[in-house]
Amino acid sequence: MPLNLPDAPSGVPDQVMSKLHAFADGGKFTTPALRAARKERLALSTPHQVFTMGRDDITSGGGLDRARPVGWRFLVQEGGQPIASAETTLAPDGTHEVSHTTEGQFVAATDNAVKAIRNLPQLEAAGFELRLLRIPALYMMALWLHAPATDLLVPMAPSPIAKEGKPMEPAEFFADLSELATQAATPPA
């Protein structure tokens, strides 16, 4: 089965593209690749829902059940090459608002990880949906491959647990993070 790129909520991709075009028209991009991009060559790819967890979620023994949906993320391509990402957040009324665009290491890491996971033998057994798990307090981002019967997490570079690109069972992933989260929560002596 192929990797499932979920459909973003209706209208969200159009809203993101409209914001990208408006920023391009107004010269409002502050990052080099987007500032230099030609607006008519911009496209969105690789839609995935973004989930977040806090350090306390991990130190209290939580797992993916503690992950909260916070928005959607897309890779922004120019001429077929990823140059940035664009994200939405959930507004209080349940609608999506474009929150930010970024360029940087996680854009390339996402593209590289998605290419790598398309070759995983586990994809043949389960139709995984692509998600993103973000744990800001630990500077951790991982692709979350979700299927009804199983989940895999693939840390993206740079990873504080140094297992970039390695598919991990949730138990192993959270065991590694638990030690890191506990250290981060302990004040220095």
Protein topology:
Elements: H1 12-26, H2 32-36, E1 42-52, H3 55-59, E2 68-78, E3 81-90, E4 96-102, H4 105-117, H5 122-125, E5 129-135, E6 140-146, E7 151-155, H6 170-185
Parallel strand pairs: 1-5
Antiparallel strand pairs: 1-2, 2-3, 3-4, 5-6, 6-7
Descriptors:
single chain; 189 residues; alpha+beta; seven-stranded mixed beta sheet; 31% helix
Structural class label: alpha+beta
What is the string of SSEs from the N terminus onward?
Answer: HHEHEEEHHEEEH
For the termini, the CA-CA separation is 51 Å
Q: How many strands, which pairing sense, and closed or not: the largest β-sheet?
A: 7 strands, mixed
The poorly predicted ranges are: none
Question: What's the short version?
Answer:
This protein is of the alpha+beta class. The protein has helices at residues 12-26, 32-36, 55-59, 105-117, 122-125, 170-185, and strands spanning 42-52, 68-78, 81-90, 96-102, 129-135, 140-146, 151-155.
Q: What would you note in describing this structure?
A:
There is one protein chain. The protein has helices spanning 12-26, 32-36, 55-59, 105-117, 122-125, 170-185, and strands at 42-52, 68-78, 81-90, 96-102, 129-135, 140-146, 151-155. It is globular. It has one domain (12-185). The chain is built from 6 helices and 7 strands.
